[in-house]
Structure formats: C-alpha cells, structure tokens
Amino acid sequence: MKKAHILESCSQQQCCGLCCTKIENFGVTLGNTEILKNVNLHIHCGELTAIIGPNGAGKSTLIKAILGEVAHTGSLKYVQAQQRAYQDPVIGYVPQSLNLDSTSPTSVLDLFLSCRSRFPAWIIKRRKEVEKIKEKLAVVKADHLINRRLGALSGGELQRVLLALALDPVPDMLLLDEPVSGIDKNGMELFYETVSALREAYDLTIILVSHDLDMVQRYADRVVLLNQSVLKAGPPDEVLQSQSFYDTFSLGWQKQKYTEGDKN
Asked: 96, 120, 164, 228 - which has most CB atoms within 10 Å?
C-alpha cells in the first residue's frame, strides 16, 4: 500500500492542538510492586515515538497511565501549539487485541454506529451516517469491511478497523499498544505504512509500544528504551546500537541461542 493512497483518502489535513506532551518524574506502583519510576519524556507532535523494552518493563502500564486507567505520581502535561483556553487533548487508542465473541453477528458497521450514536445500532442506520463511516474506514483502506462480521476479520483487518475507530474523531494523540501482535508480516507492514501516512496527514502525536524492532527502525522518528525507567531515548539507530540496548537484550538473545543449540 503506497503512502500517497492514504493521504488522498484524508479529506482534510489538520494539525493537532499539541506541540509537546511532557511526562515528568512519572511513577506507577501497583500494590507493593514499583512498575515505573522517574520516567521523563518529551514527546512532540508529528512524531512517531516507539516504546521498546523487555517483558515486564512497564510499557503497557505507561500507556494505561497516560489514558488515566492507572494512577501515577509525577506529572503529565500537554503543551498546546495554539493559544486558546486549555482543554484535555482528544486521545485515540488501539489495544493489543479486542476480546470479542467470534460467533457474534456484530458487524464493523454495528461497532461504529454503537460508538457514534445514542440509538441502538440495529434500530437506526441513517444513510449519511453509513457514508461517514465508510469514509473513516477508507482512510485505513478498510471500507470494504464495513458489513463484515467482527469475528470473521483477520487480525490485521481487525486492527485496521480499530485504528479507524481510534481516529473518529481525529485525536491529538494516538496510543498504540502492541497493535500488530500476532499479525503476519504483510499485515504488519500495511499497518505501519498506514500509521506513518496518518501521522503525516494529521500531524499526530503517536506513541507506539512494539517488539518489532525492524519496523521500529524503519518507521519511528524516536525510540525510547524503557525498563522501569528510561534507559535511552533518541533516533532509532542511536538507541538500537547503544550499549544500553545491548545490555538490556543481550542476555535474552544468549539464552535463546543456547536453547536452540541444545535442540540441535
């Protein structure tokens, strides 16, 4: 999928109201366990910031704290690009997966209608509303899925539908928590190309949690290596070639190599 195709589908470019998201002295403790401590990040709009780290590093917890689902210490500030009365930013969110009944008759259209209207989706389906939903899906090249059952979608198709839903309305900040986990390589590539094009079209602040280091290197503007606190932050090549990255992941690689050697 070419980036230009997505840009053509975006009827209007618009800039988000943010110029920076400041995370200062951020900490999260659940029970007696300290998940995050002294996290300091400045994330700029128009950039795709990838959060990487080992399992248990606190990556998803950071996303949940930004969403307000988990209590945190420290401060989370949104600096606005335009001088106007302060208001909290609109945040779009794509989870790692959606827990749904694969046998349910609920369609993609039903999902959107239930989120956009106060009426039950099966009672009123206004033509204008359906056309608007098609336009939203077309942005992520998924308009052909509008009448498909959610349970019949592939992993990649479902994540593109959830991405379209997260863009309705267009947010100031888009949070993606391992959105391509379990998706095949082609689906993964399409998802990343779509997100990259949307970032340029809408000047979005995007925070992506990912284990796909090849894709991170290709598409991220900035990478944050997290393991309870920030170990390294900067351009992808700088972080992925750093001593901090090697120290964090080399033990896992050595263990995997040793295990594979035993199998051989």
From this structure: 164
Q: Are strands 205-209 and 173-177 parallel, antiparallel or unpaired?
A: parallel
Residue 56 to residue 41: CA distance in whole angstroms: 19
Give residue-wise pLDDT tens across range 205-230: 899 999 999 999 999 999 999 999 99
Q: How far apart are CA 233 and CA 228, in angstroms?
A: 14
Nearest to 50 by CA among 239, 242, 248: 239
- Spatial distance between the Cα atoms of 97 and 84, rounded to a whole number of angstroms: 36
Helices (H), 47-204: 59-67, 108-116, 127-139, 155-166, 185-202
> ω into residue 89 within 30 of 0, thus cis?
no
pTM, two decimals, is: 0.82
Q: Find the angle CA(25)-CA(28)-CA(33) to the nearest 5 degrees.
A: 130
76 CB-near residues (< 8 Å, 6+ apart): 21, 22, 23, 24, 26, 65, 66
Tokens encoding 64: 């949940």
Q: How far apart are CA 115 and CA 149, in angstroms?
A: 16
Q: Which two tokens stand for residue 255?
A: 């263990």
CA 24 to chain centre: 21
